[in-house]
Amino acid sequence: xTSASAARPFRLIVSGGGTGGHTYPALTAVRALQxxxxxxxxxxxxxxxxxxxxxxxxxEGIRFESVATGKVRRDRNPLKxxxxxxxxxxxxxxxGANEARSLVSKFRPDVVLATGGYVAVPxxxxxxxCRRPLVVHEQTVRLGLANRTLAxxxxxxxxxxxxxxxxxxxxxxxxAVVTGNPVRPAVLAGEPQKAIEALGLQGFDPVLPTVYVTxxxxxxxxxxxxxxxxxxxxxxxxxxxxxxxPANVExxxxxxxxxxxxxxxxxxxxxxxxxxxxxVLALADVVVSRSGAGTIAELTALGKASVLIPYAAAAGGEQxxxxxxxxDAGAAIGLLGEVSADDLRSAVAPLLADPSRRRxxxxxARAHGRPDAADRLVDVLLAVATPTA
Length: 389
Fold this sequence. Notes:
By secondary structure, this protein is an alpha/beta fold. 44% of the residues lie in helices and 14% in strands. It has helices at 3-6, 20-36, 52-59, 84-90, 92-107, 120-129, 145-150, 192-199, 221-237, 249-257, 261-264, 277-283, 293-302, 318-328, 341-353, 355-368, 373-384; strands spanning 10-15, 41-47, 63-66, 111-114, 134-137, 156-159, 176-178, 210-214, 239-243, 267-270, 286-289, 305-308, 333-334. The strands form 2 sheets. Strands 3-2-1-4-5-6-7 form a 7-stranded parallel β-sheet, sandwiched between helices. Strands 10-9-8-11-12-13 form a 6-stranded parallel β-sheet, with helices on both faces.
């Protein structure tokens, strides 16, 4: 590195968004890089206007620029992909590519990080056109459409799973490195007692295992229904902490009010968890949840026994694939397709009744976890970076 380049902050362009699964790993990597460089980092986030990534960047004090984006709506029927909406959005791709190329050319990044979502495609292509190093990070076991596109031009493909390597185009496999999916450091530092104190879980029985049920920030109607049906039995076996989504709290509290007092004391329902989440995860012996990439990264990094109920409408069936991948390795129990309350009971019961079985699944999950994923990804970014004057 020349003295001129050493005198200025490291420059990073990051692009990825549309969902939290693309946005938050990117943010975690940015924070890890800031820590590694002791703050000597200049970041430009390129994404879609009025998007999740734009709000996250603003909240973090990261400069944000938007480019035109086009979303390809996939369908098994190729003719349906020629819809008016798809054709209109595809026409926006060249516009976005030109805008991204202008931003990359002016900012002159040392490296570009793309974490997926359709907005990452024009930025990744712009990095290639401007001859800037491009690191593409894939969060899921299977590659998303955007990252499959960028794999052919990436300097490095950072993957979350060894099994993803063989899914890359043959020409891109030599550039692959398995980093894992970045997990926020706070998630790894939870304390069970803090969850009990913060949420007032004084009715929880310390002799029983604790089940944490979550369907994500908004809750999941399917999971809420299954747990509601199962509550009278489940509460004889465990304490239950249920994050159900803000819209569903009152209904479930009404259900809880009909339970015997000793069972109701072991049930805590909440719409949303904020800073308490790491402590709740630390408290949980078993987690019942969806199987998005971020959730999988957290559960495996922590080594949690889990029952995974994939969101059937997830793009490309990614959640089902994630759940099946862990279930095949004995690192989770996967419930795919139509799921009944009896199915959930059959999956949860052995984990609650047998601590050794619970430890077995938790240990297998931990073997798949990469709690140092953010640092591994930072290593890749620094290794391929090419400083500019």
